[in-house]
C-alpha cells in the first residue's frame, strides 16, 4: 500500500533522512519510533505527501506521489490520505459533525452523503451524543476521536498519525491506540503512526526504529 524507495531528505547541509526503504501492506499498523530529531516527522510528512524527498520516491497504492503537483496532489491527498496530528487541528467555529464532514465536502460529496458518512463514523467512535459540540466543549480524548473520524471520512487508503496521543493522558493514549487496532480489524484500515512511546508502539504489527535518519531495526 505504501512503498518508500531510497528516501533521502536534506535541509541545506543537514542530511536528515539517509536512504529509507520500506514497504507497508494494506491493513498493517506500523509505528515509527526514534529519539527526538531522528527524522520521524520528516519521514511521515514525505510518506504522507506533505513534503517532497530530496531523492527517492513514494508510491501509495501504485501512484508515485512524489511526481504529483498542485491540484493533482491536493486531490490525491484529500481523497486517499487521512491525517491525525498531535493537536487535533479541528476548526473551532464548527461542530464535531461539521468538522468531520469538511474533507467529504471538499472531495465533492453531497452534504447528505458527507453527513451520513461522518455520522456513521462518529457513532462508531462513541461520539453520538457529541455531534453538535464545538471543539472547546469536548475533552482531549473526544477531540482526538473526532480528528480520527475526520481522517476516515473519505475512506482513505492510509492514515498517517504524528504523535496522535502525545497530548493525552495515559488512559486516553491507550484507548486511542486500541481504537486504531479496532479500526484495522473492522475495516482493514492501514495506519502509519509516529510515536515516542514504546508501550503504544508495541500494539502495532510492526515497529520501525529510526536512528539518525536510517532504519536500524524493524
Ligand atoms: N524545515 C526544516 N528545516 C530545517 N531543518 C529541519 C526542518 N524540519 C526538520 N528539520 C530538522 O530535521 C531533523 C529531524 O526532524 P524531525 O522533526 O523529523 O525529527 P523527529 O524524529 O520527528 O523529532 P521529534 O521526536 O522531536 O518530533 C531535526 O534536526 C530538525 O531540526
UniProtKB/TrEMBL annotation:
MF annotations from Gene Ontology: ATP binding; ATP hydrolysis activity
Annotated InterPro entries: AAA+_ATPase, ABC_transporter-like_ATP-bd, ABC_transporter-like_CS, MacB-like_ATP-bd, P-loop_NTPase
UniProtKB keywords: ATP-binding, Cell membrane, Lipoprotein, Membrane, Nucleotide-binding, Translocase, Transport
Residue ranges annotated for the ABC transporter domain, each copy included: 2-218
Keyword Lipid metabolism annotated: no
Biological processes per GO annotation: lipoprotein localization to outer membrane; protein localization to outer membrane
Family under the similarity heading: Belongs to the ABC transporter superfamily.
Protein name: Lipoprotein-releasing system ATP-binding protein LolD
Origin species: Marinilabilia rubra
